[in-house]
Amino acid sequence: MSGSSSSQIVDSSMAEYAPLIILLPILAMPVILFLGKIFNTNPTWKNTLKEGGIIALAAMGASLFISLVIIKDYIGSFSNNGDIFSLTWLNTSIWEGGSSITSISFGFGIYIDHITVMLLFVAAFLCFLINIFAIGYMNTDPINDNRNHRFYAEFVLFCAGMLGMVLSDSFLWLFIFWEIMGLCSYLLIGFYYERPSAASAAKKAFMTTRIGDVFLMIGLVMLWDLFGSLDYAVVFDTANIAAVSPGSLQLALGMMFIGAVGKSAQFPLHVWLPDAMEGPTPVSALIHAATMVNAGLYLVARMFPFFGAESMSGELVDLAFIIASIGGITAVMAAGIAFVQDDLKKVLAYSTMSQLAYIFTGLGVALWLANTLDWHHDPASHTIVVVAFGAALFHLFNHAMAKGMLFMASGSVIHEIHHAHHHLHPDDHGHDDDFDAQSMENMGGLASKMPLTATAMLVGSASIMGLPLIGGFWSKEGIIANAWRVALEDPRFFFPAACVLVGAGMTGFYMSRMWLKTFAGKPSNEVAAHVGPTNTWIKTPLFILTFVTLSSILLAGMGFAHWAPDSEYSLLSDHGLIDGIMYELGHAFANHDTFFFILTYVAIALGAILGPFMAMSLFGGKLEDGEECKPWFRPVIKLNNWVYDKYHWDNSGIATSGLAVALQNRLYIDKYYDLAMVKIVAGFSNKVAEVDTKIIDGTIKQIEDKSQKISTTVRSLTTGSARDYILWVAIGTLLISFFIWGVA
Amino acid sequence: MIDPAWVSGLSAILFIIGLIGVFTRKNAIIVLMCIELMLNAANMQFAAAAVHHGDATGWVYALFAIAIAASEVAIGLAIFLAVYGKHETITLDDINVLSN
Amino acid sequence: MSEAITYVQPFDANFTTAFCPELVLVAGLFAMMIIPNLGKATFRIPGTQIRLPYFLGGERYSVFSNPRLPSWIAVITMIIAFVEVLMSFDGGLQRYMIVSELLPTTINEVNSGDVLVNGGSHILPGSSKELLLINGFSRLFEMIFFGALSLAAIASMNRLQSFDASDRSTNALYNNRRQADFYILLLTCGMGMAIVALAQDMFVLFLGLELASFSSYVLVAFHKESKEGTEGGMKYFIVGSVASGVGLYGLSMLYLWAGSLQLGELSVAFAEAMSPQGSPALPLIALGFVLVGFGFKVSAAPFHFAAPDAYAGASSPIAGILATASKAMGIVGLTRMLLIVASPESSDGSAIWLVALGILSVVTMTWGNIAALGSDNPKRMLAYSSVAHAGYMLAGLTAIGAWNWDPRLAGHGGDAAIMVMTAILFHLVVLVCFKLGAFLVLSVLESEGEVSKMSNLRGLAKREPLLAVSMFIFMISLAGVPPMSGFMSKLLMIMGIVKVAIGDMGDAISNGDLLSIGDAHWVWWLALMMVLNSAISMFYYLRVVVTMYFHEPEGTRQGPLPHGWQVRTAIFACVVASVFFGINADGLINLCEMAANSLNYSWASQ
């Protein structure tokens, strides 16, 4: 709390260890790879070290520990933003003597502010938990035998990429780590490279995000052009921002935003995310919760100082609108597609997309507010901006926690379904038979068999839905409310505001549907009936995350919903925890402003009542006779039965309608992309390949042949006879003397 | 006393003879002798220059150069012996396992 | 910069301090001669039965029963000398000039304190000669020489066959004897190189050069059980002797003309000769002849012919020495001759040798690269690549000669020249890391059979991943790929040359005048040629990488290579240095800059 009076966050020597947060995982990678190669079949390596999992865990644990200490130091006093560590090399002082040659300096530094702290905690904490989960998931699957070290090596590098991106102090390093993540995502999604679908999914993810990356790079080059540097210290400097033209800056930021769209899988670069489910489930959790998709959000959040600068006031609203609208479109579109997905992980994938879209909308709205309001001087405006930005970041936090938990829980379900199937049909090996362990059609009634998993799923779903008092509720309400607040000011924003409000109801529907189809009702086949409980490695992170999500109210009370990259803003000093909780509760449920009062209850009604209600009327049912479930499920199951019996709604007409088919086909977006790929890109590349073989290859071949011939000719002068060599020396002597004398 | 210029001229002639011999003769021993000629041409020049300038350093240079020449012969002959042991010839043109 | 030079007479008070690394070498040589020979030899006093032991001789190695002892002595000596050189840099380098004679009055002053040089006049008798100068420049070169020789000595430790000391068979005695021979030659080679680095008199420099050359001739021919070894040694010997014969004759002409071979006096004489009323024919021909002698050492075309043969015939560590330390020795000679004796200060504008050296450098780098392009023998390929690298350094030297950089004459400002010199020195240092390292990797391969074809490297990545990674790093360093030290050196060199070429255009540019490339000094073409040549060179360096990584191992050459921790340690050191100096070049660049500046100082003092 604010009681700690230390004025400097980094007076402790921990700052010096900050680079270790990135370095430890990076160093763990070669160690795991190397040891894995050597001790591949060694029993100690397999059983005690979990094929490298323990080494990865140690590295991630150490990273998490250092991160926590640094975060604690930082939260102790919010006064000190900026570089806490920097290392410069290639500072070529030798050229400073000259006038015409510029000196180049290139270094790495650690930059800490509110945004960093939030993302750092999310990344380090979830990477650590997912690592625990991965040990339980990967090491018990026989298909992974003897290659788990590759998994852990890529895993830690991925984590290092995210941590490095969050901590680095310039856009240049952000981009470098961004690309490291891109590479690792490619490797990890294609981990089962023997499956063609995994290989193509990896390629798809790589290519799609690469499109965004190209734009990001263009944006960074433009930014460099504007500021002459990519260091945060330079580009965030108010005086420097005042010196650049708003139009150019908006264009540069817009380009960078396209990069974020690709990385965070927003419309229209979203096609890779569902396919990325081809990777092992821990990878899905890692990509969707802890790292990759958050990178895009982080990039947009990093733009806050540009929008917040006084000199830019009112100049960047268009970009803010675009950000919010992309979010709005994606929120509704992804939720719609999630309605009809049968694959458990795909539902979660689309839900990720949709929730990220919320965060984008929230960020867009917050950036709009920061850009238009006079928040530097007016305290009321200041609070509005801080709350809007905080809501978006807090939703990122809540979503990451909930989604991490959901993916791990789904992984646990799939894992056990798979095992049960394997147990019942020992002849089927591997993943290549007809049985789909991820399909919800093969599940049902698991609530009694996997109580902890079901609980985690329930809490996670509730958090995503925005069930009052739990996790995502606090942040989602904030996003919706602020979107409408802006919509009242700027009519263009009615579109994203309406999208997020409708999206809330849709979220309630598809998340409930997912839970009910998986855990309620009767087992849909004998496999689901034979599922057993899961192992401890998998349970532990679920358990921890359930508590984090449930205790979200505490964080909200501590003011985490009021979170902004503003060093003036002191977060915990205003009020105590109880006061904070009361304030948040009052603000949420008894708002003084009638408009927001009604809005809150509309959102609750949509997300927490209407959506789940519809899902209950369509899916679910009683558990099988004799199956007992935990007491906290009983009301859910009972309610479900009641709704199902009383309001059962036959939706077969809608289910076969054109819209549903379109949704099932992901609105044909992938199809058109593929078509475009085949028709345009493939045609073009065939042409290029033709030109390449005929002209370029031919030329290169010619050059190569010619150069080899010349080389042979030249080398044939080295006859091997010492006399010829001496002759050359004599000739050389004459020539040198001739030239020296001749010139003189 | 002979004018040092004449000695220099003689040394130049010696040097050219040595240089021509070095790349016209095939026998390694004779090539070595020609190299000695070149070195000795330099020696003579040093000596002549010492007289010309009345500077004793030139004599010292000449003495050292003689030592260099002597060790060069020693090393050369040793290497030629080793070559003869493996190639059974010291005709330069015939020793070309290594080329290109 | 402190301008104080302490003048020291041989065996004076300061002599040991000044000469520490060299004296270590001498001590090592004595130790090498004595320690392995300690035995049970006795002398019977005539007419009595009393036998007096005198220890030297008798049964060799009987006291220290390790036939590998000479290698340890050499390695330890070299490393101590290397460390001494490094330590002498610590806390500002003390400069010493070894002179042949000091007047008695000044000896006291030397004992009490330094004699300061005032406007170039110091208290020396007229007949006294400056012999050896210890300053940043010479110490840096000693660092290169001793570093390279230490690495080669470490790498050679397990190459020569040795037998147990108790084995008294002829074969065993013969082979154990050769242990000492090899390392004595390495030490004398180092001794000669050190003299070259320090010499202030062209003849002393030449003496050192010959001492090092003779050692290296024998080292090349050391493997006399093979046709290649003896042949390579013979060719290297004959061509080298001819080149040094030409060089010595050039020196004798210089002496005839100037009456002295002291650098300072030659420089003054050159300046006079280049004045309009001078008569330059004799010194210019002499200069050309001397360049031939040094040109052979740096293996500049067309004096490089023997080099590929010698490298192919010699054992790989020795080939590495020829390609690095020996080349650096040639560069010292060229620097002394071109930049101190015949420096551009002697005439207004460019140096007299500029065109000749420029052509030489372009021919050398192009020839080397083109020849390397199709070479199928890895050692010959590396030899040609070292020819190309010699070309790059000659291009740098040429650029320095483009203007008159004398700091006393203001005008152009010498920082571009210093930058190019720094680049050359930096290049020589890092060359030891990656060129020698590459040869050491080949040396490990040689332990299983000869390495005369690119195909011998096939599948190295599968057989020895660490070696393959090291070789990969060396290759991309040689090619000059960014994070590696080879890139830094090329970058510095090219930027320096361009800066030289821009030269006095700087003011015009800052005035905003439009200038075309034609207004720049023509040396910028050298930078262009360097870039083009680097592009060509990429091909053959990457061919090695492709061979290692994408080809299956050859039939009989499977599995890991015989162990040899010494050579692997040396390779590891090279890898670390290659990478380290690439990403953290500051320290080394500063050191090289200091050395380059001290060369400038000796310029100014004469």
Describe this structure as you would to a colleague:
The complex is a heterotrimer of chains A (744), B (100) and C (606). Chain A has 744 residues and is mainly α. Chain A is built from 30 helices and two strands. The longest helix of chain A is centred in the C-terminal third of the chain and has 48 residues. The N terminus of chain A is likely disordered. Chain B is an all-alpha fold. The longest helix of chain B is centred in the last third of the chain and has 31 residues. Chain C is mainly alpha-helical and 606 residues long. Chain C folds into two domains: 249 residues, no CATH class; 263 residues, no CATH class. Chain C is built from 23 helices and five strands. Chain C has a three-stranded mixed beta sheet. A two-stranded antiparallel ribbon of chain C has the order 2-3. Chains A and C meet through α29 and α30 of A and α8, α10, α11, α14 and α16 of C.
User: Which oligomerization state do the chains in this entry correspond to?
Assistant: heterotrimer
Our count of helices of chain C gives 23
The major sheet of chain C is characterized as: 3 strands, mixed
Strand content of chain C: under 5%
Total beta strands of chain C? 5
What does the overall shape of chain C look like? globular
Shape of chain B: elongated
Instruction: Note the gap between the termini of chain B.
Output: 53 Å
Average residue-wise pLDDT of chain B:
90
Share in helix of chain B:
over 70%
Greatest interface (CB-CB under 8 A), with counts per chain = A-C, 40 and 60 residues
Count structural domains of chain C.
Answer: 2
